[in-house]
Design brief:
The chain is α+β, with helices and mostly antiparallel strands. It has helices at about 5-15, 20-30, 35-50, 85, 90-105, 110-115, 125-135, 175-190, 200-215, 225-240, 255-260; strands at about 60-65, 70-80, 140-145, 150-155, 160-170, 245, 250-255, 265-275. A hairpin with a 5-residue loop joins strand 1 (about 60-65) and strand 2 (about 70-80). The mean pLDDT is about 90. Belongs to the EF-Ts family.
């Protein structure tokens, strides 16, 4: 049995960032072999991940990046279980590493990022698992990317909600400024699509059926149910599709009218909204 010194424990702690007692236990189990001890710590992280797989992750941090030319946006959310963990330096550094990796490889999906290797040879997923072992909480990664004529972004003050919004037909308008206003609208009002054409047909059908049942319950004539339900559907579109929503900063105009007032024909091509715990 190899003698495990305080210097050995500190070395492993420096290498992995794990706690002193965890490092000592891993070195004892590995009989002083540092690489084997690192593997043991990593397996500990996987055990934590498996054990806490069903736990809710309602705290965390969102980060965004928009390319210098303003045509590409990337949004990363790293979620955890408690507010205290979200403030830990290692957690915030991992969130930044995930975003930096997304930018470096121009990731299309979360899986692309998690499979990518860092400079130490470990994958991003291994880094996530390692941190789970150190902090004892479930961590969850969410990723969104958007390409458009111009992309704007917004992170809410709680650092748990963020939006990327794509604009087209921008003309001479200040895309960053108007895009930020629209992104703030998306954070606050949670639209489900850009306009009614983006709403899934099954959702529209459900709203019509609900509208009919409500009208029927109110005693409306059967012959009027379809017309009443279509009116309710239009109200649904107004409330739940971005371009038709009233602008929260000035409810005298819709988002479509706001954009058109900044540059004739300007509109939203797409948006991505990510929220931790909501």
């Amino acid at each position: 049995m190899a003698a495990i010194t305080a210097a050995d424990v500190n070395k492993l702690r420096t290498m992995t960032g794990a706690g002193m007692m965890d490092c000592k236990k891993a070195l004892v189990e590995a009989d002083g072999d540092f690489e084997a001890a690192r593997d043991i710590l990593r397996k500990h992280g996987q055990k934590i991940a498996d054990k806490r797989a069903d736990n809710e992750t309602s705290e965390g941090l969102v980060l965004v990046n928009v390319s210098e030319d303003g045509t590409k946006g990337k949004l990363v959310a790293l979620a955890c279980e408690t507010e205290s963990v979200a403030k830990v330096a290692n957690f915030r550094e991992l969130a930044q590493q995930i975003l930096d990796t997304a930018i470096r490889i121009d990731a299309g999906t979360k899986e692309d990022i998690l499979a990518a290797k860092a400079s130490d040879g470990l994958t991003v997923q291994e880094h996530v698992t390692d941190l789970m072992g150190k902090i004892g909480e479930k961590l969850e990664v969410t990723y969104a990317t958007l390409t458009a004529e111009k992309v704007a972004s917004y992170i809410h003050s709680d650092n748990k909600k963020a939006v990327l919004v794509g604009l087209k037909n921008v003309g001479s308008a200040d895309a960053a400024a108007v895009g930020r206003d629209v992104a703030m609208q998306i954070v606050a009002m949670k639209p489900i699509a850009v306009d009614k054409d983006g709403v899934d047909a099954s959702i529209a059908e459900r709203e019509i059926e609900v509208g009919k049942e409500q009208a029927r319950a109110e005693g409306k004539p059967e012959a009027m149910l379809e017309k009443i339900a279509l009116g309710k559907l239009n109200k649904f579109y107004k409330d739940n599709t971005l371009l038709n929503q009233e602008f929260v900063k000035d409810n005298s105009m819709t988002i479509a009218q706001l954009l058109d007032s900044k540059s004739k024909g300007m509109t939203v091509s797409d948006f991505k909204r990510v929220a931790i715990g909501a």
